[in-house]
Inverse folding.
């Protein structure tokens, strides 16, 4: 493929190829082995129209580890603030011939639109409520490393499913890899028609967490609840926050995940987030660098092949 826009477009064998390569990069990163030849001579532009800590930092680090020339566009101080549109911004940057464009945008579908206007490879770093493919891939790698496999597991995704691109991408990836996915959320935060995706739906944490292998918590995304019902944090934690009593329903060796940013005492008890015997939250961050290296490596190979074919 030319771009990485969503898990929706990936076949199970493509997911496995990406995760296998990322696993190798993760091992090499821990050993301090570098791969600066992989993207040598390539230019990577990171365009984040929405805030980020993990995704932006890990894409930047991944590009540098692979030898790309990495430029971070400061979108808050760009001409977007003077009214320049997303497409005009994309065309302007395209004229500078970037090879890889990493884009985060608050509107669902904006990254797909941008990908149609540029010559380089586009990686979706999160668009609205739509997809966050590299997050689902890093979650898949984290699960596979912790559980020894990424199939036939029972995985609960809990919290604000309705506003979550992380949930959407994970539902697709985990389903394609033949896992059993349960969604647990208050009815107001559960998207209508979601059971069509082959998931089980619960509004009770204790029932939904029964005997699961993986507990994936999500942040309450108040910034996307424009005018809608916002639950009180206290009440929400009581009913849907992950604490020791609720986690006791899961398998004794169940792992706890959270994509971040995390709100302690709202969707997760801080002591559980910090429990190194259960929580793999820091591993998720570590795997994020490796997954982004793998994604850019594979897209760069395709880009080089397409250019060689065009030149022949
Ligand atoms: N998980 C995630 O996308 O985090 P950031 O918003 O910090 O990039």
């Amino acid at each position: 493929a030319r771009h990485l826009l969503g898990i929706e477009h990936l076949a199970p064998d493509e997911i496995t190829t990406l995760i296998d390569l990322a696993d190798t990069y993760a091992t090499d990163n821990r050993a301090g082995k570098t791969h600066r030849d992989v993207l040598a001579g390539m230019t990577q532009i990171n365009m984040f129209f929405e805030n980020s800590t993990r995704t932006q930092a890990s894409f930047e680090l991944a590009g540098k580890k692979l030898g790309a020339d990495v430029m971070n566009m400061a979108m808050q101080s760009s001409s977007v603030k003077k009214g320049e549109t997303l497409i005009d911004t994309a065309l302007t940057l395209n004229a500078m011939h970037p090879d890889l464009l990493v884009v985060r945008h608050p509107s669902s579908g904006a990254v797909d639109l941008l990908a149609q206007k540029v010559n380089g490879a586009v990686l979706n770093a999160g668009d609205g409520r739509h997809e966050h493919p590299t997050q689902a891939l890093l979650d898949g790698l984290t699960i596979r490393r912790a559980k020894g496999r990424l199939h036939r597991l029972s995985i609960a995704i809990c919290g604000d499913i309705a506003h979550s691109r992380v949930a959407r991408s994970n539902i697709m990836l985990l389903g394609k890899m033949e896992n059993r996915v349960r969604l647990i959320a208050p009815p107001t935060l559960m998207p209508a028609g979601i059971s069509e995706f082959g998931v089980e739906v619960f509004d009770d944490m204790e029932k939904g967490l029964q005997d699961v292998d993986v507990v994936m918590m999500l942040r309450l995304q108040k910034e996307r609840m424009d005018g809608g019902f916002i639950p009180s944090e206290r009440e929400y934690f009581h009913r849907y926050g992950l604490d020791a009593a609720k986690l006791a329903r899961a398998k004794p060796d169940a792992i706890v995940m959270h994509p971040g940013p995390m709100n302690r005492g709202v969707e997760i008890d801080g002591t559980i987030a910090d429990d190194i015997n259960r929580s793999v939250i820091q591993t998720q961050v570590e795997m994020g660098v490796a997954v982004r290296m793998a994604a850019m490596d594979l897209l760069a190979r395709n880009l080089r092949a397409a250019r060689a074919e065009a030149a022949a």
Remarks:
- The mean pLDDT is 95.
- The beta strands are 43-48, 69-73, 100-105, 121-127, 154-158, 180-184, 200-202, 214-217, 255-257.
